[in-house]
Design a protein that fits this description.
By secondary structure, the protein is of the alpha+beta class. It has two domains: about 60 residues, no CATH class; about 35 residues. The chain has five helices and two strands. The protein has a two-stranded antiparallel ribbon with strand order 1-2.
Length: about 130
């Protein structure tokens, strides 16, 4: 019952300078849905059975069980990282800028970085922000 469908493997090569041996490790990336499946199994049957059943590391399964509460609000189920990315400083202003950019593009106008930056400064100068 290993998770092999959507598992993405990255080859990481580590070198030992003293012995001149090359050690190859596989790093895997799992979607939130796959993690939820493992967590549900671990809660029903225990972490040890889950790690043996899904062929995963104990620390990884334990970490997923402890952090699974944060995945509830994640909208993209195929996302690999939860809570990653830039946090918004001015969410209302960024929403207004986004709407303005979409409106400009519907009119067939291009919006460059410089134009978007000037518009954002104008939005932030408004007394309501």
């Amino acid at each position: 019952m290993p998770l092999q469908k959507k598992r993405r493997q990255n080859m990481v090569v580590s070198k030992r300078v003293a012995n001149k041996k090359i050690i190859k490790r596989h790093r895997n990336s799992y979607s939130i849905e796959q993690k939820r499946q493992v967590v549900a199994y671990a809660k029903e049957n225990g972490i040890i059975k889950a790690l043996k059943s899904f062929e995963l590391d104990k620390s990884m399964v334990s970490r997923w069980v402890n952090l699974n509460e944060k995945w509830v609000n994640e909208t993209n189920q195929n996302s690999k990282r939860v809570g990653s990315g830039r946090k918004s400083f001015y969410p209302e202003a960024e929403k207004e800028l986004y709407d303005w950019i979409i409106e400009q593009r519907k009119q067939g106008l291009g919006v460059t970085y410089a134009i978007a930056r000037v518009k954002m400064l104008d939005i932030l100068k408004k007394p309501t922000m």
